[in-house]
Amino acid sequence: MHVRLLNFIGGQWSEPVNGQYHNDYNPATGEVLVEVPRSSREDANRAVAAAKEAFQSWRLVPAPKRGEILFRVGQLLMERKSELAKKMTQEMGKVLLEAEGDVQEGIDMAFYMAGEGRRSFGYTTPSELPNKFAMAVRDPIGVAAIITPWNFPMAIPTWKIFPALVAGNTVVFKPASETPQLAYELVKILEEAGVPAGVVNLVFGSGSEVGETLISHPDVALISFTGSNETGRHVAQVAGSQLKRVSLELGGKNAIIVLDDADLDLAIDGIIWSAFGTTGQRCTACSRLIVQEGIYDVLRERLKDRIAKLSLGSGLDSKTDVGPLINRQAVEKVHKYVQIGQDEGAHLEIGGDVPHDSGLSAGNFYLPTLFTDVTIEMRIAQEEIFGPVLSMIKVKTLEEAIQVNNKVTYGLSSSIFTRNVNAAFQAIRDLATGIVYINAGTIGAEIHLPFGGTRGTGNGHREAGTAALDFFSEWKAVYVDYSGKLQRAQIDD
Ligand code: UN1
After folding, report:
1. What are phi and psi of 475, to 5 degrees?
2. Is the pLDDT of residue 418 over 90?
3. Are 366 and 334 contacting, i.e. CB atoms less than 8 angstroms apart?
């Protein structure tokens, strides 16, 4: 029998009430790693009750003290960075260097939010009346449901849990079923760092059982969700009917624009990293390449050469550039899109299949793929594939490139390679995405800037930076009248 993970509810590591478990697999080899609780509504309800109770005292812990706990969390993450990264590669598949980056993102967030314990600035402003003081302070809200995906098993939970905690909320955390071990390790670290019982609760289980219970629970005040557009809409609908606060991050169809005057060596490095890093399984991954006609042919040929040299394999092997996809369904989904692309008339330049190397047959591998002759209305140019598939679109001008960039339902990240400062600033102004890069790929957001997107990518909230505190706290306006008499706003002088 494999090691069994446990839920963490009210400070106790506990079995799921129904006693059911499922397997967690290594996507590179197919081997079973651990068994994971397949929890039910009952576990989720117990976790919400524990978080609700703990909120009464946690909200009163001074924010700098809450921040100090997060500082210890950051230190523990640092100490365990390499062992956590290795576990992540085994469980999620991304190459070790990237897994280390994922843990580092969590470390950065821990130290940043630890500092917010001593900032969390509100503001004072003059009152319109004499002898009266006015200020706005941040208030904790209550129980936060944190529902996270498998592609950043450490970073994304920390983006949500750390600001939730420093702002004084308590948490019920439901991680993706594919990456339970990292969630488990993170919660163990939170416990070890001194987070009091009930303040963070961990419930493993499916979206339909645990997720559904959390989003519709009357005692859950906040929901932070990263995942598919379809599920995000459902979360918003259920939560909206109860007026819960919801932050959604729902993916992208991110583009890199390459103008004729670009530094091509740099652009190619940025494209390969953004399209095939994490095997294309980032919300910020580049899946569209919008190329000005003067360099289209040379860029296509050079990209094909580079793609042909990418080596697939286990992320633990230092020679590997591209690891496996998360599971079989992902391989099927990517392959389905490749067929759709061909049916739509796009030209398959390279890839487009599973590798035929017998050493890779047990894993969920897919060859890095490039399509050319792609037009904007094609499904491969519109829908999120979440795999190593890149589509090249030819344009004549910067204006056309920007139009193509903006003509998708998502709006997360975009990038432009150009040496022309005027073109760069025009792009900054006109690219309708939440993140814009100049002369860098579409991935690699830093934790102290707002993260999120426009249109179908979300619902207007931002994660990370101080923007995260705006989501996880409520503004309270406070008026202190020290005049000793009735002063009527808008009426008295
Ligand atoms: C995601 O894929 O949801 O900017 C997060 C990046 C990473 C985070 C991606 N720092 O690519």
Report:
1. -75, 135
2. yes
3. yes
Residue 481 burial (CB count, 10 A): 16
Of the candidates 162, 52, 171, the residue with the CA atom closest to the CA atom of residue 114 = 162
pTM: 0.96
Give the pLDDT confidence of 481-492 residue by residue, as tens digits.
999 999 999 999
Q: 491 with 133: CB under 8 angstroms?
A: no
DSSP state of 4: B
* β-pair type (347-350, 369-372): antiparallel
Ligand 1 centre distance from Cα of residue 19 (Å): 35
Q: Which residue, by CA, sits nearest to atom 11 of ligand 1?
A: 443
What is the arithmetic mean of pLDDT over 425-443? 98
Ligand 1 atom index nearest CA of 226: 3
Opening angle at CA 442, ends 439 and 447, nearest 5: 105
289 close to ligand 1 (CB < 6 Angstrom): no
Calpha distance 234→457 (Å, rounded) = 14
> Which atom of ligand 1 lies closest to the CA of 155?
8
Residue 154 to residue 175: CA distance in whole angstroms: 10
Q: From the CB of 444, is ligand 1 less than 6 Å away? A: yes
314 and 323 Cβ atoms separated by less than 8 Å? yes
102: which DSSP letter?
H
Distance (angstroms) between ligand 1 centre and the Cα of 283 equals 6
Q: What are the beta bridge partners of residue 22?
A: 36
pLDDT digits over 290-314, tens only? Answer: 999 999 999 999 999 999 999 999 9
What pairing do the DSSP bridges indicate for beta strands 474-481 and 132-139?
antiparallel
Other C-beta atoms within 10 Å of 196: how many? Answer: 14
Using the mean position of ligand 1's atoms as its centre, give its distance from the Cα of residue 473 in Å.
24
